[in-house]
Amino acid sequence: MAKIISLVNQKGGVGKTTSSINLAAALGKLGKKTLLIDLDSQGNATTGLGVTNTQIVHDVYDLITRDISINEAIIKTPFDNLDMIPSTINLAGIDVEFVKKMLDDNTFRQNEQLKNKLAEVRDYYDYIIIDCQPSLGISTMNALVASDSVIIPVQCEYYALEGITQLLVTIMMVQSDINPKLQIEGVLLTMLDGRTNIGLEVIEEIKSYFKNKVFNTIIPRLVRLVEAPSHGKPICYYDPESRATEAYNNLAKEVIKRDGN
Ligand SMILES: Nc1ncnc2c1ncn2[C@@H]1O[C@H](COP(=O)(O)OP(=O)(O)O)[C@@H](O)[C@H]1O
Ligand SMILES: [Mg+2]
Q1: How many CB atoms lie under 10 A from the CB of residue 124?
Q2: Is residue 18 in contact with ligand 1, taking CB distance under 6 Å?
Q3: Closest ligand relative to 219 C-alpha
Q4: Which DSSP category does 87 fall into?
Q5: What is the CA angle 53-55-58, rounded to 5?
Q6: In the chain, what percentage of residues exceed pLDDT 90?
Q7: Is any atom of ligand 1 closer than 6 Å to the C-beta of 199?
Q8: Cβ of 44 below 6 Å from ligand 1
Q9: Which of 10, 11, 18 has most ligand 1 atoms within 8 Å of its beta carbon, as the pocket-test mutant?
Q10: From 172's CA, which of 60, 144, 196, 213 has a CA 20 to 30 Å away?
Q11: For residue 128, what pLDDT is reported?
Q12: Among positive and negative, which fits the CA dihedral 168, 173, 174, 175?
């Protein structure tokens, strides 16, 4: 049965999308059947895998709000063992849509829609990776309720931990309320700039706070990771021999190891 992992941080620009795409692709390359779900209305994970509008029949918004089967929203990618569910700007309307639904029907459970849809394919995949948007709104709540664990990407910079308390409180609320099995898979340090000391100071701070929850793999700041999405490819296909490929491959191995399989 698939392990469902969300990449969450309500701060934008910390490496959620870059890490979702490249972790999912690395897991696929390691032979794990993987589904990447783009749960951000900006659709960066969608374009980052080279999926274009003409390929999209149903997006993640349709999946969560309409009575369609998840198989109607899944797109096969040209990459090993990697499928995806795309997102479009439509997702930006979900909060309004769900408030209306709750007013019409007081039994409607607005945070459990994604979880119910994923049940249909959980046995098929090894991993389901969810790229969340930079907010703790309804779509991210759907991800937290559906997930077994979360990866929190944190950029190696000053103020890295800004907003982390609010995120942890939200995770605890979900744990005590609807999803007691939700775990913190790990904190992922991203965009480490080897030329400054700032990154190293931040690493010490985060490690003293999160202890062994911090992944050993640290993602360096590398321009190849910025280029790859504009070619519609994960890094392990865009530049297989790069340090960036090695970093996400190591992360994927750590994730598999923590899972014990
Ligand atoms: N390791 C990295 N090295 C260099 N640039 C990166 C790295 N990770 C992400 N970026 C760039 O930083 C920006 C924000 O990253 P992104 O993954 O979109 O963050 P988020 O999804 O959290 O908003 C993007 O332009 C991305 O290309
Ligand atoms: Mg993003």
Answers
A1: 15
A2: yes
A3: 1
A4: -
A5: 85
A6: 84
A7: no
A8: yes
A9: 18
A10: 60
A11: 98
A12: positive
Strands (E), 156-235: 183-190
Considering Cα of 96, then 97, then 102, then 108, what sign does the dihedral take?
A: negative
User: Residue 135's domain spans which residues?
Assistant: 3-259
Find the ligand nearest to 8 CA: 1
Distance 219 CA to ligand 1 centre (A): 11
Span 205-261, pLDDT tens digits: 899 999 999 999 999 999 999 999 999 999 999 999 999 999 999 999 999 998 765
Ligand 1, atom 3, lies closest to the CA of: 221
**What is the Å distance from ligand 2's center to 225 Cα?**
13
Strand duo 34-39 + 183-190: pairing: unpaired
> Ligand 1 within 6 A of 219 CB?
yes
Residue nearest to atom 26 of ligand 1 (CA): 226
For residues 170-182, give the mean pLDDT.
Answer: 95
Atom number in ligand 1 closest to CA 191 = 1
Residue type (1 letter), 220: P
Instruction: Name the one residue in this structure whose structure tokens are 């469902």.
Output: 4
Task: Please count the structural domains in the chain.
Answer: 1
Terminal-residue alpha carbon distance, the chain: 12
Does position 182 have pLDDT exceeding 60, yes or no? yes
Question: 20 is written with which tokens?
Answer: 């979702």
